[in-house]
């Protein structure tokens, strides 16, 4: 707490003034948190003094509040390039970052508990700079760090506003910003040192060395083999402890391929009331977004019932967590030995949602053979045929690859000189995307989906047929058996620490805790 107050005083965050008569004074409070290392051990105890920003009024105390953060897809793409080009990858942290933002309104706040000025106990704090908790704090900090980047010659990429690039001759420097966490990539350590010096000229920076642990993600490298791995083993351990599955029996499938979740009855909802379902689904969702594409479809299913969950939904969510606990040592591997190429896979399961009759879109985009972007999402409208459902899936993946091409065009132009290949397992959907047909079965399709046809015609995207049994995105659209899961996660690049794929000797799941037998055939 003393350290936090000293930082506030050093940065002249506020000034003490008499309590105003016609101005509302917002409250304040202390927030305490335990910061942990990658292995789960305690790094330090942290105290943060915050304003009660929820009492601010729009148009009076604040206006705009939006502040961007880097996309996880961008981070994975850049790590893939780092593995390929053998970039230096370092991490920095800005201490009390929000205190650097300049306030854009008159805000008065109560003095902090335990640090009330003895001479003027009735005075209040008039903020001169942003403070944690205020509505505009994140936006003001983002503007401050942006101005700093521009000042030192960095250019903001158009595809992701939190990725900055500077080219000086043969030297390339890339800076990724996620609030107060900075990832710096460069061709040499000399450039890293230069960036560190520039950052320290304006901010209180903590140098964390080579990237090892950031945003709950552990990073390991084998530079001699051009291999980079990311996983969230420590986070899975913490979530498992929180929801009391640390001692669960091994579970080798995230979902049962023979059952579907449906809306629960009011009686079932009452039985499940009080369980932390939303918290569990939120934790699973973050793990899925960062490093675990193999649970995308399962998480997508349980997330649809946050407002009306029952016991079956709770057990399904716990099953996903038990699967993660069993496979906690699995990493997403970026192999720099693959050729420079962007390839995507798109699939759909027609009318798989029993409550609405809608289909599920699934896609994965790979860069240099490594999975960097994926999605499993229920489609917004009902598809009249499997062709139509697959066509909608193509629309989703083509949007993503066009964005990916724009992003790579700035950070790695050599990738954009090639045609982007999108694999699809439905020949009718490929033909529909290549020919302007308007017969009775397709004339009702929304105009926006024909964006795919435009990209194919212009040569931006090339569609190719891939048999269903080889379709990597298949596990993003439905629950599958152990053999299929084993096969497809290999394509994702998910591997265990000993590089033995999950399920190699475990094809079925049976009753949890029963011995898992070697696969005889795919059931």
Short descriptors:
523 residues; alpha+beta; Nucleotidyltransferase, domain 5; 3 domains; six-stranded antiparallel beta sheet; five-stranded antiparallel beta sheet; 23% strand; globular
Describe this structure as you would to a colleague:
This protein is of the alpha+beta class. It has 3 domains: 2-215, no CATH class; 231-330, no CATH class; 338-473, Nucleotidyltransferase, domain 5 (2-Layer Sandwich). It is built from 13 helices and 22 strands. The strands form 5 sheets. It has a 6-stranded antiparallel β-sheet with strand order 8-9-10-11-5-12, sandwiched between helices. Strands 13-14-15-16-22 form a 5-stranded antiparallel β-sheet. Helix 7 runs antiparallel to helix 8. It is globular, with a radius of gyration of 26 Å. The termini are far apart.
Topology record:
Elements: H1 2-10, E1 14-17, E2 25-26, E3 28-36, E4 42-51, H2 72-85, E5 88-94, E6 108-109, E7 124-127, H3 137-151, E8 155-156, E9 163-168, E10 171-178, E11 181-186, H4 189-200, E12 205-210, E13 213-214, E14 217-222, E15 227-231, H5 233-242, H6 266-272, H7 277-290, H8 296-303, H9 311-326, E16 331-335, E17 342-349, E18 360-367, E19 370-378, H10 386-411, E20 420-424, H11 427-434, H12 451-457, E21 461-465, H13 482-492, E22 494-495
């Amino acid at each position: 707490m003393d350290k936090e107050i000293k930082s506030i005083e050093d940065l002249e965050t506020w000034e003490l003034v008499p309590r105003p008569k016609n101005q509302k004074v917002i409250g304040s409070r202390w927030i305490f948190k335990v910061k942990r290392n990658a292995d789960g051990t305690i790094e330090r105890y942290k105290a943060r003094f915050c304003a009660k920003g929820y009492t601010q009024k729009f148009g009076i105390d604040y206006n705009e509040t939006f502040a961007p953060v880097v996309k996880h897809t961008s981070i994975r793409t850049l790590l893939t390039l780092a593995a390929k080009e053998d970039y230096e990858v370092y991490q920095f942290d800005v201490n009390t970052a929000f205190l650097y933002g300049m306030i854009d309104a008159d805000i008065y706040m109560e003095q902090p508990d335990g640090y009330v000025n003895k001479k003027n106990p009735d005075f209040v704090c008039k903020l001169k700079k942003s403070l944690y908790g205020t509505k505009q704090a994140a936006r003001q900090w983002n503007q401050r760090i942006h101005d700093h980047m521009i000042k030192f010659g960095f250019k903001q990429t158009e595809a992701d506003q939190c990725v900055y690039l500077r080219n000086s001759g043969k030297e390339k420097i890339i800076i990724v910003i996620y609030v107060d966490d900075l990832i710096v990539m460069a061709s040499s350590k000399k450039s890293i040192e230069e960036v560190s010096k520039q950052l320290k000229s304006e901010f209180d920076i903590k140098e964390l060395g080579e990237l090892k642990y950031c945003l709950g993600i552990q990073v390991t490298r084998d530079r001699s083999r051009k291999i980079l791995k990311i996983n969230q083993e420590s986070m899975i351990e913490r979530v498992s402890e929180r929801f009391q599955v640390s001692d669960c029996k091994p579970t080798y499938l995230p979902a049962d391929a023979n059952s579907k979740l449906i809306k629960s009855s009011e009686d079932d909802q009452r039985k499940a009331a009080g369980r932390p379902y939303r918290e569990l689904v939120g934790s699973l969702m973050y793990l899925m977004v960062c490093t675990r594409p193999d649970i995308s479809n399962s998480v997508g299913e349980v997330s649809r019932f946050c407002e009306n969950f029952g016991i079956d939904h709770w057990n399904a969510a716990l099953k996903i967590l038990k699967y993660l606990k069993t496979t906690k040592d699995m990493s997403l591997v970026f192999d720099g030995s693959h050729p420079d190429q962007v390839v995507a896979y798109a699939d759909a399961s027609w009318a798989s949602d029993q409550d609405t009759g809608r289909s599920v879109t699934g896609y994965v985009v790979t860069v240099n053979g490594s999975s960097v972007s994926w999605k499993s999402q229920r489609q917004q409208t009902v598809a009249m045929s499997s062709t139509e459902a697959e066509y909608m899936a193509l629309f989703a993946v083509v949007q993503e690859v066009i964005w990916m091409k724009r992003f790579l065009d700035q950070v790695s132009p050599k990738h954009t000189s090639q045609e982007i290949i999108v694999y699809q397992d439905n020949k009718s959907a490929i033909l529909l995307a290549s020919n302007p047909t308007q017969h009775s079965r397709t004339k009702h399709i929304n105009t926006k989906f024909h964006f795919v046809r435009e990209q194919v015609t212009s040569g931006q995207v090339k569609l190719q047929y891939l048999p269903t049994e080889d379709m990597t995105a298949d596990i993003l659209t439905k629950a599958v058996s152990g053999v299929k899961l084993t096969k497809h996660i290999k394509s994702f690049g998910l591997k265990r620490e000993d590089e033995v794929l999950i399920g190699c000797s475990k094809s079925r799941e049976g009753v949890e805790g029963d011995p898992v037998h070697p696969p005889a055939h795919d059931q």
